Amino acid sequence: MSASKKSDSKTGTVHKKTQQQPMHQVDTEDSSKPSKPNFDEKDQGISPKRKAPGPTQRRRRGKDSARPEATPTPEANIKNDHDS
Amino acid sequence: MTTILKDIGLNQTATGRQTGTIAEPSLACSGKRMFVTGNWFASRSTSAGSRWKFIDPYTELPPAGAGFCCDQLVHYSKRWRLWIWLLQFSKDANGNFIRVAVSSTGKSGTWTWWDTTPQDIDPSWNRVWLDYPDMLETDKYLMLSFNLFSVTSNSWQKAVVMRFPMEQLKQRSALTRQGWSTDRFGSLRFAKGQGDTAYFASLYYSAPQLELFKWADNKNTVTQKSIGVTDWSDGPYLSNLPDGGAWLNRLDDRITGGWNTEDTLGFAWSASADVNHPHPYIRVVRINKQTLKLIDEPDLWSANYAWAYPAMSPNQRGDVGVSAFCGGENRFPTHGLGWLDDDTGTWEIALGSASTHGPRSGAWGDYVDIRPDPSRRTYWLASGFVLQGGSSRNHIVPRVVLFKP
After folding, report:
1. 3-state helix, strand, coil in chain A (%, to 5)
2. What is the chain A residue with the closest CA to B365?
3. ipTM given for this complex
4. Binding-face residues of B in 24-83 toward A, CB within 8 A
């Protein structure tokens, strides 16, 4: 594997290339079996809130905030909306 | 009009009882062969979805580092006749890595893979981990995007795009990786489509702007264009199910869908209710591919319930399809499929499977998938999931849907 150097620009940073040799699956039956998690615990451990999507949190606006457009785009045409 | 031709559920045998309520299903298809992944299973069919064989992402490939974690994506390259499987591994004190595995058949025992750590892209990236993957094939490259988080604080650090030559993946040779990163914009999403250029986008959080990035196969630089769009509201995402429970607690306004056709680029994300939309809905913007200027904003919304978690893709004809969820009021989370009618600017939607319950945690997501059917010009294949018969992870039923305009 080769080390990388980088070059910066206003948009972002281009990182120089690195190389990685492949690994091949010979026989999965003989591979060591890792312990698996308790899936119920794993499911319950998921955060109710996601991690931040980016560098800053967007200002949050309420339901009454007005969008500049006067008329919304057409409502979706839902074919088999029989349960609602 | 949208016609659903098949709506296939994966039972607990197909998923090895390893489903999670944040299901995140991804799918790939070649003829009758299908490969579906989700939290925390994989499953393969050679009978167009009639029968499935569970594949365990924890054991199918040898363990490494802190072990397999969670997010997975799959893709079939028609051009290279290659199945591509991305697996995200758990973090430890030093970070994590992602594994890209390839196979000509998708059968057990046929996979070759390469592992990539954040340090492989930049040696100075220590104690950080990769999460929230996206994947795109261009003419020459497999493109991957991630967010990079601190191991210690879980705070967002950077967004990263990597590209691997498809020819090297096909040849199972040493893989030349190239990376690009930004600490200004997060949660990058690719515009799905074909061509020699990867388009990807993020939302700017200080102003209503979409940041569009372009990385051509023959360039070593990424260009950026800021595109002003109509403002939207990011939360609270209020939508109560028939039992009074919530289902959008994890929702935010990051881009989850994008497309790239001959003439247009498009991106989509979830937004909360505002004066014109009584429930959370899907913001959509279309951009002229030549001028990179905004064309219009054909949002997907309903007066009766919420829409969220859009995935978008063109079919082979260039129509734009969507896979997303709707719910609220008197509807439990329901898989919705459809396409954008260019003539009317209206989303033509058909509802797929509906949940019988809401999630116990109040959380749904975080993404679904949609692909052009590789063998039928106007068809799409999409992934989704529903809760059937209860509210726990054991009641999650991943879905594979074939539909057309």
Report:
1. 10, 20, 70
2. A50
3. 0.91
4. 40, 58-63, 67-68
